[in-house]
Amino acid sequence: MTIQASCHCGAVRFSVETAPAELNSCQCSICRRYGTLWAYYRPREVRFDADSGPTDIYMWGDRELEFHRCRTCGCVTHWSALDQTYDRMGVNARLMAPEVVAAARI
Ligand SMILES: [Zn+2]
Predict the structure, then answer these.
(1) How confident is the chain (106 residues) per 10-residue block, as mean pLDDT?
(2) If you count Cβ atoms within 10 Å of the first and of the last residue's Cβ in the chain, which end, N or C, has fewer?
(3) What is the tens place of the pLDDT at every residue in 75-89?
């Protein structure tokens, strides 16, 4: 079942083919402030809509990860690693339907 996700304004949209079984309510210094719930996927498993809008990027610490947020509404959408060989990224499950979040283990 395809799971759709969208920021508040709808500019940034992506989908994944499998619902997340587990979500990480990360308590690191940045994620607890964002209030994100991370679902982890391989980058090739996350399909951004072709007309998905631009994001702004925040980096901190050792600057290995880019935290993306919608340029229009500010919702944190995902993080990706600068290292292209790192086969993992995080998407913010808060952008998915509430039922999807409710069905996952946090
Ligand atoms: Zn938006």
Answers:
(1) 96 98 96 97 97 95 95 98 95 98 96
(2) N
(3) 999 999 999 899 999
**Looking at residue 4, what is its pLDDT?**
97
Q: How far is the CA of 53 from the centre of ligand 1 (A)?
A: 8
Contact 46, 89 (CB under 8 A): yes
Domain CATH code at residue 25? 2.170.150.70
Residue 59 domain boundaries: 3-103
In the reported structure, the alpha carbon of residue 9 is separated from the centroid of ligand 1 by a whole-number distance in angstroms of 4
- Separation CA 39–CA 60 (nearest Å): 20
Q: How many domains does the chain have?
A: 1
